[in-house]
């Protein structure tokens, strides 16, 4: 498997954990056992989830970085990560937050992010 593909897979896994750590706690209130946790408890749960993010994020960047033998420079790694983050966030929001709506302005914004990827990778 290529280093580019491994990097993208690890970034996808990492960003899935990140999305749950950053935004999943907003749905915790619907779970009975989380109702007894205060803000500090929620922060600690989110930190635990975020630790799993770093378990995948750090290797992804080390494997993917061109100065470590990977195919991507820092600019490219960052833009790839942002596009993956927003893609996962979109799926997460649609499935877990039924009150949020994906609107045309969101799609247009994502289109501009795809253009950012194009320009970052353009030689």
Describe the structure.
The protein is mainly α and 123 residues long. It has one domain. 76% of the residues lie in helices and 0% in strands. It has four helices and no strands. Helix 1 packs antiparallel against helix 2.
Set down the secondary structure blueprint:
Elements: H1 3-28, H2 39-64, H3 74-96, H4 104-121
Helix pairs in contact: 1-2, 1-3, 3-4
Transmembrane segments: 37-56, 77-97, 103-121
Keywords: Membrane, Transmembrane, Transmembrane helix
Protein name: DMT family protein
Strand content: under 5%
Shape: flat
What's the mean pLDDT score?
Answer: 91
Domain tally:
1
Instruction: Enumerate the spans where pLDDT stays under 50 for 5 or more consecutive residues.
Output: none
- Report the order of strands and helices: HHHH
- The level of helicity is over 70%
Rg of Cα set: 17 Å
SS summary, helix count: 4
Q: How many angstroms separate the termini?
A: 25 Å
Largest sheet: none
The helix/strand class is mainly alpha
* Number of E-state strands: 0
Pfam family, one: DMT_6
Keywords: Membrane, Transmembrane, Transmembrane helix
Transmembrane segments: 37-56, 77-97, 103-121
Protein name: DMT family protein
């Amino acid at each position: 498997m290529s280093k580019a593909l491994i990097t993208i897979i690890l970034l996808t896994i990492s960003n899935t954990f990140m999305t749950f750590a950053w935004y999943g706690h907003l749905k915790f209130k619907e779970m009975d056992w989380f109702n007894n946790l205060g803000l500090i408890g929620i922060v600690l749960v989110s930190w635990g989830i975020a630790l799993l993010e770093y378990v995948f994020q750090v290797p992804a960047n080390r494997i993917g970085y061109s100065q470590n033998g990977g195919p991507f420079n820092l600019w490219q790694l960052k833009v790839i990560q942002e596009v993956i983050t927003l893609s996962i966030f979109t799926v997460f929001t649609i499935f877990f937050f039924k009150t949020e709506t994906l609107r045309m302005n969101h799609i247009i914004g994502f289109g501009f992010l795809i253009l950012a990827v194009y320009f970052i990778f353009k030689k």
